[in-house]
Amino acid sequence: MTETVVRRRTPWLAATVHSVRSETAVARTIVLDVPGWPGHVAGQHADVKLTAPDGYSAQRSYSLAAPADGERIELTVQLVEDGEVSPYLVDELLPTDQLEVRGPIGGWFTWHATEPGPVLLVAGGSGIVPLMAMVRERARAGSTAPFALVYSTRGPADAFYADELAAADIATTMVYTRTATDTRPAGRITAADLPDAAGARVYVCGPTGFVETVSDLLLAHGHDAANIRTERFGPSGG
């Protein structure tokens, strides 16, 4: 079944905002209660639709940030300047507000706690969101699968979930493109930033250029292309 068919047959569901919390100065996690939500797997995403009083509607797709929790879901949204949807979600949405969601969507870029690992996660910017769902699912399920995360952002203030990742039982490497540290100059991700994770299932998520660069580095590093799963995003109007 193709993703197009899945979207057509999946109904829009009414969602109520349970709570919101800031992740960075321009990103926010939104917790939604969605009666009728069918459940999801870490790595999937959902469509969000906003409808104005005059009937005009706009929709965007956002990764699910947490594992399945009954009829409650979490989305982390980063502000897109001049966007139609993200400015409202990040700056205006409040608890008890309502919107519509549809999903879950996607079945290839997913991780199940029954998989033994090892797993290598590589995120660029807000590409951390579906990978964070995998990190949280591993903890929720009590999985002992070896996890390693390489997370590239402009600097520490731009990192989502910083405190939670610092406390997580996984090997995490931060790569800052515009902030130097004691162990690394500022700059884009290189082969030296990627750990030796032979045989690992690899998940790469981020902007298109980032995903292509990391995929090339992984292949040059000897990773099997069949073990590399990618998800990319680009300008969408927000």
UniProtKB/TrEMBL annotation:
Residues 10-111 form the FAD-binding FR-type domain. Gene3D superfamilies: Nucleotide-binding domain of ferredoxin-NADP reductase (FNR) module, Translation factors. The keyword Glycosyltransferase does not apply. GO terms for molecular function: 2 iron, 2 sulfur cluster binding; oxidoreductase activity. Keywords: 2Fe-2S, Iron, Iron-sulfur, Metal-binding. Pfam families: FAD_binding_6, NAD_binding_1. Its cofactor is FAD. InterPro entries: Cbr1-like_FAD-bd_dom, FAD-bd_FR_type, Flavoprot_Pyr_Nucl_cyt_Rdtase, FNR_nucleotide-bd, MRET, OxRdtase_FAD/NAD-bd, Riboflavin_synthase-like_b-brl. CDD domains: FNR_iron_sulfur_binding_3 (cd06217). PANTHER family: NADH OXIDOREDUCTASE HCR, PROTEIN RFBI. This is Ferredoxin-NADP reductase. It comes from Actinophytocola algeriensis.
